[in-house]
Amino acid sequence: MTTLRTVHGPDVWATDNPLVRSAYQEAVMTLADHRDPRALPDMIRSLETRVDDWRALYGVGGYPQAADRLVPLLADGLRRSDPHRPDAPIPAGLYLSRLADLKDPIAIPVITDTLTWASRHQSRSVVTSALDALATFGPAAQAAHAQIRPLANAPDTTVRAAAQAVLDVLTGDKDTVPARSTPGHGLGQHPPY
User: Fold this and answer.
1) What are phi and psi of 7, to 5 degrees?
2) N or C of the chain: less Cβ packing under 10 Å?
3) Residue 174: what pLDDT?
4) Taking a C-beta distance cutoff of 8 angstroms, is the pair 104, 64 a contact?
5) Dihedral over alpha carbons 27, 29, 35, 38 (to 10 degrees)
6) Would you tell me the crossing angle of helices 67-79 and 108-120 to the nearest 10 degrees?
């Protein structure tokens, strides 16, 4: 990575040379697989510039120590989501799962705002992803109770089940956290668009 930066400049992640760009990004993501802090600056830069940010998203969940930098960037990505196409170009559920992976309470208001937005636009997949993300915080997400409670009576059975699961976690009725509804993604996966 150091050699590539020396030869191609500091922003190798976004270089115009596709072979160099791919090799560098793979190296960064390999470091991210191991939670190596050397990957973090490139992933933050990618999220800031939106250059191949789909790839950086797969690694950011392993850096809770950088939640203060990452949560606002993930929130910005969520704000760019189209309510009529929440899975394009990057699934809103991917942003939500990464917020949950960071396990920092500063993400709870972002997830709650997304839940409100998704409910208003009747985006079932985003609603269930937001509910699943809130469930990972357990009782710390109690402030979202008012947004979650009405969803336990939603007409959609998936939304109803996810809302009830979160309510159970918030009240301590169940110790298990429900599995997230977002699909699994590999770090080397091609962009979702």
Assistant:
1) -80, -40
2) C
3) 55
4) yes
5) 50
6) 10
Calculate the average pLDDT of the chain: 88
CA 137 to chain centre: 14
Give 3-state DSSP helix, strand, coil % of the chain, rounded to 5.
70, 0, 30
Cβ(58)–Cβ(40) under 8 Å? no
DSSP state of 122: T
Report the C-alpha dihedral over residues 69, 70, 75, 80, rounded to 10 degrees: 110
Query: DSSP string of 72-92?
Result: HHHHHHHHT-BTTBTTSSS-H
| 52-76: pLDDT as tens digits | 999 999 999 999 999 999 999 999 9
Q: Give me 111's structure tokens.
A: 């997830």
- CA pair distance 42, 64, nearest whole angstrom: 16
Q: How far is it, in rounded angstroms, from Cα 156 to Cα 164?
A: 12
In whole angstroms, give the CA distance from residue 63 to residue 35.
7
